[in-house]
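COMPLEX REQUEST
Ligand: LARABZUK
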Amino acid sequence: MTILDKIIIDKRKEVDLRKSLIPIQQLEASILFESETLSLTQKLKTSQSGIIAEHKRRSPSKSVINQSLNVQDVAKGYEDAGVCGMSVLTDGKYFGGSLDDLIVARASCDLPLLRKEFIIDEYQIIEAKAYGADVILLIAAILTRDEIKQFSELAKSLYLDVLLEVHNEEELHKSIMPSLDMLGVNNRNLKTFEVSLETSKQLSEQIPNDFVKVSESGISAVEAIKELRPYGYKGFLIGENFMKTDNPGASAIEFINTLGT
Ligand SMILES: O=C(O)c1ccccc1NCC(=O)[C@H](O)[C@H](O)COP(=O)(O)O
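STATUS: Structure written out below.
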């Protein structure tokens, strides 16, 4: 069994429990559920840096990254650095995140916020909206084409942007549909943890131009972004490289300054 299989088994139990504790009607009554969303897709189209900076305490591949920071400081720091958006991991068991992290990030900055989660149920999309997200992630490796369609259409009806993540050709070809906004190529194989920027390069040509292309994971130097831009990538999701430092915001400023225009 891969780590991804384990995550999904646990996630099903977690979502069932959440559903029994907080009914959908209660989520829909949240103030944030009615709030206007911010479009990460539009921001990436016009941004110079394209950086989406992540809040990530730990991960299955790296264990502890940084447990001593508070989300408020990280969110403000990223916003001051001029990143395009912030990704907030909300999985507790494997990444040390929570929906509270998302709410704190929402209260601390005006960046488009991505709920970084293993979405397997419509309920989690309603939750994302109720806790202040602007964007959801759908992972092709854990969803059927019908689920991707159903989930992305629900997200669009709630004015959430949709980032669809793929890691290989098969996932890409089964997923392409008009209800997606951004196509993310994860450079990390979620089953083996192997990371290679070549994955983004190899898949880029097959991604239709209608979608904003995002390269995810394993980006630790500005050279990687300079290498990936000619392949059409506009967005770059960076977690560990910023979060492993004492001050992720300062690290993001330095990164963006070094990148230049
Ligand atoms: O990061 C992991 O170890 C991981 C393992 C299993 C499933 C997902 C995982 N990561 C989620 C992500 O996609 C990354 O947090 C994100 O792309 C940032 O990656 P990085 O810049 O390498 O921290």
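REMARKS: The domain at 3-259 is CATH 3.20.20.70 (TIM Barrel). The pocket of LARABZUK is lined by residues 3, 54, 56, 59-62, 186, 190, 193, 216-219, 237-241 (CB under 6 Å).
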